Amino acid sequence: MTGEQARHAWLDWLARERRASANTLEAYGQDAAGFLGFLTRHLGGEPDLAALGALRPADLRAFLAERANEGDSTATRARRLAAIRGFLRYLTRHHAMAALPLGAIRGPRPKAPIPRALTPDQARAVAREVGEVHSLGRHERPDMQAARDTALFALLYGAGLRIAEALSLDLRDAPLPGRDTALRIIGKGSKERLVPVLPVVREAIATYLRQRGAGDPGDPLFLGARGGRLDPAVAQKSLREFRRLAGLPEHATPHALRHSFATHLLGAGADLRSIQELLGHASLSTTQRYTAVDAAGLLATWKKAHPRAG
């Protein structure tokens, strides 16, 4: 069986057995054809089943390197590799081709997206004014909900918390004025960290608690309108409403406040290790993404201010 015959057999199997769509068949067919064309050049002749079964991980890496040189994006190369793996596995299972060490071939890893932070003015506006949305429309407990959202989003920006971390807090955890203890947070992977809380955030929480009313230490800190733990979707909806009211960008989300916390600390001179600890990142490489944000901000400022930048 030639490589081209194998390709047609695979596509026919995908259509009949897997009910693959026409678009999938076209994309996979092109990926396999491109791979076979590469192998013809790479091996000095059209590959047959035996040649395909004798491939090494280095041969597939050479193909991916050539595609990168031709301008394929990381995502495109990852898709091509997935198609080729499927093609070779099909030949192993259905045509007795020698099994290949496909597990040794790691696909290209896409770069993590650069976090999108708000400007300091935008973040402060959210932290101070988000409760205004509850003066509009119909809300069950507008004063409590306004104070709650102000306290919640001030905490997200002031302490860099994930929204799930903030909403998991109980009354016993409330950081109040006059307490110097840091907030104890259980983050991803049950990793514990201590986070200092600014006085302005403590005051916002104290204001909210006066509206909230008393409760047991194990009760949720942030309540929904009906007395249960606040749902993240409700908090996100409040911020979407405020975003439209205040003319903020679409990326003004609860998680953008965490990004803003880290970015603004970095811009003010904080070191990466300290920011890593405050955010609860397991790896410093995750925190290093914020250096790209800060560099982008510096470049934007330079282009705006430098007389020769245009």
TrEMBL record:
<dbReference type="InterPro" id="IPR011010">
    <property type="entry name" value="DNA_brk_join_enz"/>
</dbReference>
<dbReference type="InterPro" id="IPR023009">
    <property type="entry name" value="Tyrosine_recombinase_XerC/XerD"/>
</dbReference>
<comment type="similarity">
    <text>Belongs to the 'phage' integrase family. XerC subfamily.</text>
</comment>
<keyword id="KW-0159">Chromosome partition</keyword>
<feature type="domain" description="Core-binding (CB)">
    <location>
        <begin position="1"/>
        <end position="92"/>
    </location>
</feature>
<feature type="active site" description="O-(3'-phospho-DNA)-tyrosine intermediate">
    <location>
        <position position="290"/>
    </location>
</feature>
<feature type="domain" description="Tyr recombinase">
    <location>
        <begin position="113"/>
        <end position="303"/>
    </location>
</feature>
<dbReference type="Pfam" id="PF02899">
    <property type="entry name" value="Phage_int_SAM_1"/>
</dbReference>
<keyword id="KW-0963">Cytoplasm</keyword>
<protein>
    <recommendedName>
        <fullName>Tyrosine recombinase XerC</fullName>
    </recommendedName>
</protein>
<keyword id="KW-0132">Cell division</keyword>
<feature type="active site">
    <location>
        <position position="255"/>
    </location>
</feature>
<keyword id="KW-0229">DNA integration</keyword>
<comment type="subunit">
    <text>Forms a cyclic heterotetrameric complex composed of two molecules of XerC and two molecules of XerD.</text>
</comment>
<feature type="active site">
    <location>
        <position position="162"/>
    </location>
</feature>
<keyword id="KW-0238">DNA-binding</keyword>
<dbReference type="InterPro" id="IPR002104">
    <property type="entry name" value="Integrase_catalytic"/>
</dbReference>
<feature type="active site">
    <location>
        <position position="188"/>
    </location>
</feature>
<dbReference type="InterPro" id="IPR044068">
    <property type="entry name" value="CB"/>
</dbReference>
<keyword id="KW-0131">Cell cycle</keyword>
<dbReference type="InterPro" id="IPR004107">
    <property type="entry name" value="Integrase_SAM-like_N"/>
</dbReference>
<comment type="function">
    <text>Site-specific tyrosine recombinase, which acts by catalyzing the cutting and rejoining of the recombining DNA molecules. The XerC-XerD complex is essential to convert dimers of the bacterial chromosome into monomers to permit their segregation at cell division. It also contributes to the segregational stability of plasmids.</text>
</comment>
<dbReference type="InterPro" id="IPR010998">
    <property type="entry name" value="Integrase_recombinase_N"/>
</dbReference>
<keyword id="KW-0233">DNA recombination</keyword>
<feature type="active site">
    <location>
        <position position="281"/>
    </location>
</feature>
<dbReference type="InterPro" id="IPR013762">
    <property type="entry name" value="Integrase-like_cat_sf"/>
</dbReference>
<dbReference type="InterPro" id="IPR050090">
    <property type="entry name" value="Tyrosine_recombinase_XerCD"/>
</dbReference>
<feature type="active site">
    <location>
        <position position="258"/>
    </location>
</feature>
<dbReference type="Pfam" id="PF00589">
    <property type="entry name" value="Phage_integrase"/>
</dbReference>
